[in-house]
TrEMBL record:
Gene Ontology CC: basolateral plasma membrane
SMART domains for this protein: Alpha_kinase
Family recorded in the similarity comment: Belongs to the protein kinase superfamily. Alpha-type protein kinase family. ALPK subfamily.
Organism superkingdom: Eukaryota
Gene that this sequence comes from: Alpk2
Identification of the protein by name: Alpha-protein kinase 2
Length: 201
């Protein structure tokens, strides 16, 4: 049953999120950690649909912090604290499982997440098979950009390993001018946190 699978996936992702929280909370300055809410399966024998799920209602703006196909146009993922910590959570799980498993479809209200998915390699991971295609793992590997929370947890950048796999060296030299233009934009980024701090007061 899809409902049972959904329940199993979300509660498995929740266990990973708890381990992530335990590690992140011990770091000074990491702050609040995203939480995947618990989903309960109920059996209703008298009903046409015998299985249903029950979970806490999330009130507020519902945001998708990661999207299955990786074509994410949502700035809240990149710029919000919750969004960045969700991307770091994905990176953390990816590294912990040696690239065999990825929590996808991270969405919710603030730091509370629900309706998540899990992608695994075809053979699964430790007897667990996800409900999302392996292509999400490939896309994550190609698109993920580390942020300060990835650095705090000491996660290895996926960029370096990704570039090593490319055989064509000419493209690398073509990319160089771009990397220097990216560096020029850094000061602009450095101003953003100050604006955020002043707006909080």
């Amino acid at each position: 049953s899809v409902v049972i699978q959904e329940c199993y996936v979300q509660n498995t992702a929740r266990e990973y999120a708890k381990l992530y929280a335990a590690e992140a909370e011990s770091l000074e300055g990491f702050g609040e950690v995203p939480e995947i809410i618990q989903i309960f399966l109920i059996h209703r024998p008298a009903n046409n649909i015998p299985y249903a799920t029950v979970e806490e209602e999330l009130v507020g703006e519902f945001v998708k912090y990661s999207v299955k196909d990786g074509k994410e146009v949502n700035f809240l993922r990149r710029d919000s604290e919750a969004g960045q910590k969700c991307c770091t959570f994905q990176h953390w799980v990816y590294e912990k499982t040696n690239g065999n498993l990825l929590v996808t479809d991270l969405q919710g209200v603030g730091m509370k997440l629900t309706d998540v998915g899990i992608a695994t390699l075809a053979k699964g991971y430790k007897g667990f098979k996800g409900n999302c295609s392996f292509s999400f793992i490939e896309q994550f590997r190609a698109l993920h950009q580390c942020n300060e929370y990835c650095e705090m947890l000491g996660l290895k950048s996926l960029r370096t390993t990704h570039q090593k796999q490319r055989k064509a060296t000419p493209t690398k030299s073509k990319n160089l001018p771009n990397s220097s233009t990216v560096k020029k934009m850094v000061p602009k980024k450095a101003r953003e946190p100050r604006d955020l701090i002043s707006s909080e007061h």
